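Exercise: predict the structure of this protein bound to MF3.
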Amino acid sequence: MAKPIYIKTAEEIEKMRAACDLVSRTLGEVARWAKPGVTTLRLDTVAREYILDNGGLPTCLGYQGFPGTLCIEVNETVVHGFPSGYVLRDGDIVGTDCVVTLNGYHGDSCYTFVIGEVDEKTAGLLKTTKESLYVGIEAARAGHRIGDISNAIQTYCEHRGYSVVREMCGHGIGRSMHEEPEVPNFGRKGIGPMMKPGMCIAIEPMINLGSKNIVIERDGWQCHTRDRKPSAHYEHTVLITDGQAEILTTFKYIEEALGSRPGQEADTNTTE
Ligand code: MF3
Ligand code: CO
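Solution:
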């Protein structure tokens, strides 16, 4: 039998809101540290301590043996990179993907940070990937199907010359970090499960500058682009409603942190 897609009660939605606020604030803390000279292990420690100090649990830490609170995605790393002694340097990009558990519910979000200044091609990749997240969210409505989100993201990115990673997907989220349905970032309109009010899903485009192909390393986790060109990743947890989907996570804490950092400007894309 197919696994169910859960419809959250009002009480559960409040818990989702709280978990999503905590993961959003956590990435806001990480944003203060995402700069040249800082190790990715430092980013991970900042996230873990913030989550624990605020009554949450770092969901990824120990999940099937994963060694971090954050998935660290430097340059060509697509997903599931390990925190390490790697020192971030000018021109890098680093995605930090974070999941928290709070009162039994999960919030999931990812943001790709610019370290110092990046080249124009990489900046373009980040801009399009972030925009594609909001384009996908726009398609997430009751009565629409999951394929409508997938198709919207794929079309937006491919028309701009980027490629969509096939092996990794967004997902339902709630009592578990990964629930039904799968939310691919490519596919046909009008296919897949129908969305209903009360569903919660994590939408997370993973978009490459070069080809779509990826390699999973021998550790079974870390994943990089086959051509070693950069990959970008942004993620929000959203609630399906009768109208526009409600975005439960937010980048506002990140953008506040980046905006207040001397010599760094928050990017000026859609903020939510
Ligand atoms: N945000 C990732 C996801 O959406 C988190 C999973 S990483 C793991 O699937 F380490 F927990 F596996
Ligand atoms: Co996710």
